[in-house]
Amino acid sequence: MISGLHVLFARPLLLTLPIPNLQAMDRLHLSQHISRQFNNEIEDVRRQVLAMGGLVEEQIAAAMHVLIERDAGAGAQIREREQQVNAAELAIDEQCAFILARRQPAASDLRLVLAVMKMLGDLERIGDEAKRIARIGERLLDDEGGVDVTASLGDLGRCSRDMLRGALDAFARLDEHLALDVMKRDRKLDALYKELNATLVARMQQKPEQIPVELDRLWCARSFERIGDRCKNLCEFVLYLLRGKDVRHSGLAKAGESPA
Amino acid sequence: MHADVALRTESLCLWYGARQVLHEISLSIPALRITALVGPSGCGKSSLLRCLNRLNDEIADSRTTGRIRIGEIDAHAKDTLVHDLRRRVGIVFQRPNPFPLSIHDNVAYGLRLLGIRRRSELDDRVEAALKAVALWNEVVSRLDESALDLSIGQQQRLVVARAIAVEPDILMLDEPGSALDPVSTLRFEELLHELARRHTIVLVTHNMQQAARVSDFTAFLHQGRLVEFGATDALFTNPRERQTEDFITGRYG
After folding, report:
1. pTM higher than 0.95, yes or no?
2. Is residue B212 within 8 angstroms of chain A, CB to CB?
3. What DSSP designation does A260 have?
4. Which of A8, A13, A251, B171 is the most buried (most CB within 10 A)?
5. Domain B5-248 sits in which CATH superfamily?
6. Mutate which of B207, B215, B235, B251 to test chain A, going by most A C-beta atoms within 10 A?
7. What is the complex's ipTM, to 2 decimals?
8. What is the strand order of the sheet B5-16 is part of?
9. DSSP string covering A102-145
10. Which residues in chain A come in under a pLDDT of 50?
């Protein structure tokens, strides 16, 4: 059906996610170490995180293809990407351990390594949510009812995917404002989720025989909402990296305060 | 955590001849804590150390302005006795410099200068000082042998014992780890923690990891100016000044 888009998915990663010029976006002067080798190691870690993020973004897109466009073929792609994501997680984690052991980084270098090690977990779990959505999407392929709710699920999916794209951009560009902006978008995603939740509950009351199907949709909505939460975490780590201040559990208003 | 201040400099400036090497250094060193002075070569950290117990007096054309307060004493006041100041503010240099005397007489040297003559008291205080630097067990059977026969690591601990035998308030160390192998360095750093229970420690070091490992507070000097002073935990994770960041992370300044 949407074969054109399907081909788009199969394109190599570098074409779908242009990796920005990291040196030009070096607000923390990460490439100005006297040791050129250290610069390379730091830049390598950043590139790998962005590449891994690109894979995860593709997993979300593929999950939406299964769920929204009812494209059964995209499910296999998610599982293939999952293996790449897992391998990337291990490789980056190991690289971070080497940097800690060999370079004993301080200040922004240390914060970069710490932030990356925490971001890896969130990225990997976003991929897991995508896989869950795709699995449910495959169960729902034959269900005809619900153009409206499918559209709402599409809104949720796009919003969560855009948040991931924004979080990765904020990390690539070391952009404080973008990170805060993405964190704010989580509210919109929560509102969409609540709205869809109410719709699905109403439908269950009207047609109890549809409860299993509506519950499946609810799980998908829940997964998109969780992806948003994880993207918010990613942005918190970007803020930590930039400011040296941990903004977790401090609320958006406080996180938005510029550092003294 | 708010520690008492053991030593305070106020707008301290130092010249060697026409060359100004310290500019308006105002620094409060917390008592019974380890404070590290770090900075690139020539930043003035050793010169600052030398101001604190007036070792710069020995340099003919040196001149200082500003103030150094050690407890209630004004270090540069005319009526301050230099030998009294140096009893309160001891110093240990980069390369261990034992006197060509016996191990016992090295440690007893300062005590004799203070007028302590009684053999039993000298012996007690030599023993206490050597125990404080964890050297006693290694040398107890050869106290009358030459200190020059000790290993470098032992010599470094011996000169610390000599410095603390007169019970200074403040013990300053100028790059004490650089002549030691890694294991001796770690032992020596462990010793610093022990000594900080009774003495305020000021440590000049080239080794960022050493400053990060052992100090409670760190002062970063650059071109004779104090760029940043703060808790070591904060300075090494999130320094306030770009210059500090560049230096501790090995970037071009």
Report:
1. no
2. yes
3. -
4. B171
5. P-loop containing nucleotide triphosphate hydrolases (3.40.50.300)
6. B251
7. 0.80
8. B19-30, B5-16, B62-70, B73-74
9. HH---HHHHHHHHHHHHHHHHHHHHHHHHHHHHHHHHHTTT---
10. 1-16, 260
